[in-house]
């Protein structure tokens, strides 16, 4: 709790600070979540779902995905990064990413190790997520989910496949191809942004129309970069984004 003024400039010593924390002692260790029942500064409106979902999920073991300054981590694509959601209201807080759901054991992660055509239902209707580990070092892999503008994702700028590059050994610092310290610096969980702008790393925005893969724009990705609907490489001069591992080169096609 902390003191602050309400919207009428009245000061209160016992205003609620929504947060999750861990209490430890020699005999116990327990996590808790605390959120206000009210929204705003005058305690006149019931709280919106974003903050409680974020804090309670954190108490259950979901890691935050804020990202270090100036980046936005996973932005709107994970409630653990931004609980306000794509419409910015906290009413629809945005879904958890495939990574966060996997940490909590809420998805069925199916590993892909062979070529072929596969179907992937919307994450709002299914708990199915694909994983690709072939060609990556230990503790590095891709997770793939189908995000559509329904449910908590209503208001999403452009539906499509969300592809996350996970590296459990990452230093967690912000990194992108134009900063001179990439790939040494990179998030533990990065959304591979189809347009190659790395806006979630540079702090340009927390999600836009060019982030996800879909047939009308950039429909795929491989070791050499993004692919068009015919499977042709369409990467820029620097070949980013791509599916190369952070440490060394390998066949991740």
In words, what does this structure look like?
With 253 residues, the chain is mainly β. The chain has helices at residues 50-59, 98-104, 199-202; strands at residues 2-5, 11-15, 19-24, 29-34, 38-39, 45-46, 108-111, 128-132, 140-147, 160-167, 189-191, 220-222, 225-227. The strands form 5 sheets. The protein has a 5-stranded mixed sheet, covered by helices on one side. Strands 1-2 form a two-stranded antiparallel ribbon. A two-stranded antiparallel sheet has the order 3-4. A hairpin with a 2-residue loop joins strand 12 (220-222) and strand 13 (225-227). It is globular, with a radius of gyration of 20 Å. The mean pLDDT is 88.
List keywords for this structure.
mainly beta; 253 residues
What would a concise description of this structure say?
The chain has helices at 50-59, 98-104, 199-202, and strands at 2-5, 11-15, 19-24, 29-34, 38-39, 45-46, 108-111, 128-132, 140-147, 160-167, 189-191, 220-222, 225-227. The chain has 253 residues and is mostly beta strands. Strand 12 and strand 13 form a beta hairpin.
Class by alpha and beta content: mainly beta
Which radius of gyration do the C-alpha atoms yield? Answer: 20 Å
Individual helix count? 3
Which strand order does the major sheet show? 7-8-9-10-11
Oligomer kind: single chain
- The count of β-strands is 13
Shape: globular
What composes the largest sheet?
5 strands, mixed
Question: Mean pLDDT, rounded to whole units?
Answer: 88
The helix content is under 10%
Q: What is the N-to-C succession of helices and strands?
A: EEEEEEHHEEEEEHEE
Low-confidence stretches: none
Q: Approximately what portion of the residues adopt beta-strand conformation?
A: 15-25%
How far is the first residue's CA from the last residue's CA? 51 Å
């Amino acid at each position: 709790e902390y003191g602050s003024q309400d919207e009428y400039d009245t000061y209160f010593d016992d205003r609620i600070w929504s947060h999750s924390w861990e209490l430890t002692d020699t005999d116990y260790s327990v996590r808790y979540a605390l959120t206000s029942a009210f929204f705003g500064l005058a305690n006149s409106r019931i709280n919106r779902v974003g903050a409680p979902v974020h804090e309670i999920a954190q108490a259950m073991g979901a890691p935050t995905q804020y990202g270090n300054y100036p980046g936005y981590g996973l932005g709107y694509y994970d409630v653990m990064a931004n609980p306000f959601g794509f419409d910015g209201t906290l009413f629809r807080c945005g879904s958890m990413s495939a990574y966060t759901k996997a940490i909590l054991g809420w998805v069925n992660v199916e590993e892909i190790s062979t070529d072929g055509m596969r179907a992937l239902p919307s994450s709002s209707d299914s708990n199915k997520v694909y994983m690709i580990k072939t060609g990556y070092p230990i503790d590095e892999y891709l997770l793939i989910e189908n995000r559509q503008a329904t449910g908590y994702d209503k208001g999403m700028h452009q539906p499509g496949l969300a592809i996350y590059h996970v590296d459990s050994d990452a230093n967690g610092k912000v990194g992108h191809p134009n900063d001179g310290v990439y790939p040494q610096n990179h998030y533990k969980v990065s959304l591979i942004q189809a347009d190659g702008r790395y806006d979630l790393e540079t702090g340009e925005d927390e999600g836009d129309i060019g982030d996800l893969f879909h047939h009308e724009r950039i429909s795929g990705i491989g070791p050499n970069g993004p692919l068009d609907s015919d499977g042709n490489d369409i990467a820029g001069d620097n070949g980013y984004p791509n599916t190369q591992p952070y440490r060394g080169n390998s066949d991740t096609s």
